[in-house]
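Entry 14. Two folds queued back to back today. First construct below, sequence then structure tokens.
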Amino acid sequence: MHIHDIQAFLTVTKTRNISRAADRLFISQTAVTHRLKNLEDELGVTLLARGRGMKEIEITPSGQDFLPIAKRWDALWDEVGHFKKQGEKLALSFGSVQTLNGYIFPPLI
């Protein structure tokens, strides 16, 4: 399962139209349809009812069940992106004798 497939599904559910979803994702309608088909094939269910001449896409009951999962998956993907941007965090550790621990460090901490 790829994040691009899930993002295509979420965008289509928001716009209710493959053409508008393709415009928002800056890809072709064929690419959106291909991503939806990949997702449906992998899940083994039909997520969206679509056909020629349909003005708006309808979400199937399976699609309704999958929608909150897709939203969480997308949110986690965003969190991973933020985590990667933070980079490596440095840690400082030091050792000391008991005298320093008892008399000098408590006011500092």
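Second construct, same run, same settings:
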Amino acid sequence: MSAMTQPETNPDEIVREAEKTVDLLGEVREAIGRVIYGQDIVVERALITLLSGGHGVLVGVPGLAKTKLVETLGTVLGLHARRIQFTPDLMPSDILGAEVLEESGDGRRAFRFIRGPIFAQLLMADEINRASPRTQSALLQAMQEQHVTIAGQRHDLPQPFHVLATQNPLEQEGTYPLPEAQLDRFLMQIDILYPDLQSERRMLLETTGAHTAVTETVLDAEQLMAIQSLVRRMPVGDGIIDAILKLVRSVRPDEAQPEMADRIAWGPGPRASQALMVTVRARALLDGRLAPSLDDVEALALPILQHRMAVTFAARADGMSVQDIIRRAIEQAL
């Protein structure tokens, strides 16, 4: 059966929901744009990550409004947001929570679970690579399973639950880089670059005066989950599915072009294909379209694939990066 005629979807219903959602998402982008300047691609990719129901890792040098972006997203989307500053001495219990022994007035003792900051709908894991692997694993396991287990008792996380982690690409001393298997848990890697001249000029004028822009709430958690459900029901053409499969498989060592195969150390797994399948729908909806196109695949290939693969030492010695491999694969596959 063609992917365009999925039996569990009602095309008319999807169209009606999409038309309402497009207007709401326009208000969301406008509200974020009042506070975050010159980072349109970053905002778009962060929104796509959340609309797809996933987690993202933000990579950029200090001072590029990573924390401000997460705070703004939490406010505009109506989510309960919290922030954790990761440090080398941070323990898993500092994130997940712990049981404490309490004594009542009549002398009876009982354990009570005190929830950690992970019990939020939008969690900012600031400088996640500064925490120990043990703490990183505790967070990433909760991200995957959507619950934590303390003293044998299961505690479900709020819904929706999203993590936006940040990493500083410059400072490596005293850090514990995320292993590849854990990076794969993040739907997308969002690189944050310096703003252009006009955006930075606007930033200077609007953030150093007597009045600053105020963020307003546009959505709530239930509306966000409804949009996430709509994204997964949007139709995807067979041509787009084939393009996704061709692209992802072309950056695996055993299926890459001969001139590229010996430059790829390891490639993305099926989770990359799944991520592209969902995010191209979210990008289409964000742009006011009812079905994704090849342009969506091309636009999202880099942030979806770059943290899920690595080049060989020989390729690095020749000055070739993961991004170069992906761009070449895009040219050949799309």
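Quick look at the second one. The mean pLDDT is 88. The chain has two domains: 11-88+119-234, 236-334.
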